[in-house]
Write a structure and sequence with these properties.
Number of helices: 12
Radius of gyration: 21 Å
Shape: globular
Helix content: over 70%
Strand content: under 5%
Number of strands: 0
Order of helices and strands: HHHHHHHHHHHH
Length: 308
């Protein structure tokens, strides 16, 4: 077995940190500076027309609340086996977000959170992160399906419900099938092993987070002088988030995927394409870029641990 000296290990950790943070900054700059669909001149004209200190503060507050609810979700789930402080939960969530920026569907977040714990806790942390992200995805599917139905895409909604019903039946019949020692029945048993109070709080915080970022999207449309009936706007936003979240993508391309889906559905409502693209970019900047900038600090100051 090849042993690595302490200094070499420190250098390797530092190199990984610099690569993660440097890569994050590069991709953020590249997407903002070289996106031909972003007309900054139009944005500045509209911003000066409608600028409001209270309005900007309110939008930023919604971004803070969005991540705050995610941090509370993580703190709540980890309390299943360990009590962690709010600052510690913040460090883990934002640090993992930064680490997962380059991975499909943020899969790097699983490893990003696991490094804050000892190796023996790795499987437990990955499982809890699956629960944390899983409830958000379920809520996105539920609200998205309702949105599709409300907008008149009833067949789409029925088709989606049919697919999930099929997978539910299929999972029921293969629940005892084991793959490398794991089965659906074992997974359900582990989920049921978490206290009901933690699950209930997780669902409540997930709903709060969903309502926050969907309404942030809505208020940004109002700021860009898009005035459509509230229910139609919310239903369209729910549909966009659902369909965009179903596509495999990277965090740093999140706004491009959501933007393309949003352009289609809001285009049907007669909303100008550049406004939709800009709002999607702003949502990405406010809810991914800003937290990643803070998370970069935690990544650079991360110290390897053998226990927590």
């Amino acid at each position: 077995m090849i042993s690595i000296s302490h200094k070499a290990k420190q250098f390797l950790v530092l190199l990984i940190k610099v690569l993660i943070v440097g890569g994050a900054f590069y991709f953020i700059y590249n997407q903002l500076a070289n996106n031909d669909q972003l007309d900054w001149q139009k944005f500045l004209v509209l911003f000066h027309k409608n600028q409001s200190f209270l309005g900007v503060t309110f939008i930023l507050l919604l971004s803070i609340l969005n991540r705050f609810f995610e941090i509370l979700k993580w703190q709540n789930l980890v309390s299943y086996f360990l009590k962690i402080s709010l600052p510690e939960a913040t460090k883990q969530v934002l640090g993992a977000l930064t680490a997962g920026l380059f991975t499909p569907n943020g899969l790097g977040e699983y490893a990003g959170k696991a490094v804050f714990y000892s190796k023996k806790e790795t499987k437990k942390i990955i499982f809890l992160n699956l629960i944390c992200n899983g409830i958000q995805m379920i809520l996105t599917i539920v609200f998205g399906t309702i949105g599709l139905w409300f907008l008149g895409y009833g067949l789409w909604a029925l088709g989606i419900l049919g697919i999930f019903f099929f997978f539910f039946l299929f999972s029921f019949f293969i629940r005892n099938l084991k793959i490398k020692g794991y089965s659906i029945e074992k997974l359900i048993h582990k989920i049921n092993g978490i206290p009901e109070a933690i699950h209930q709080k997780n669902i409540f915080l997930g709903i709060c987070r969903y309502l926050v970022f969907s309404h942030q999207y809505y208020f940004l449309f109002l700021a860009f002088d898009v005035h459509l009936p509230y229910l139609i706007m919310i239903a369209t936003i729910a549909t966009v988030y659902f369909l965009a979240s179903s596509l495999p993508t990277f965090q740093f391309l999140d706004f491009a995927v959501k933007g393309s889906v949003a352009v289609y559905f809001f285009g049907i409502l007669g909303v100008n394409e550049w406004i939709v693209v800009f709002i999607s970019t702003l949502m990405w900047f406010l809810n991914v870029v800003l937290p990643v900038l803070i998370g970069s600090y935690y990544v650079l100051n991360f110290k390897t641990k053998t226990s927590i």
